[in-house]
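Q: Got a minute? One more chain.
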Amino acid sequence: MPKGGWQEFSNIDSLQRPITASSDPTPKAEQRVRVQPTRGGKGGKTVTVISGLDLDPAGFKSLLKKLKTRIGSGGTVKEELIELQGDQVDLALELLSKEGYRPKRAGG
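A: Always. Here it is, folded:
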């Protein structure tokens, strides 16, 4: 066998990860949704962080609007996390359950 016969990584296509066609998002009942209060990096103010949602940007916006309306406080979406102002864990758990998710309280 001549030197340099190994060709697995010499082609640029072999270095790319395979693209998985995930056209269908995970069903709501199978998503691991975590709801936790946190204060880190918020100037001492408590915020409620909701993580583990498998939604598109429009889905995040819609769910955030429902949460903010029901809870009566501000909130935002940052890097696939929903942040709500204040310690709103119980209300968020209740609303997420009504929406069909299986939320779980995490942290303090």
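A: The helical segments are 12-15, 57-71, 89-99.
Q: Perfect, thanks.
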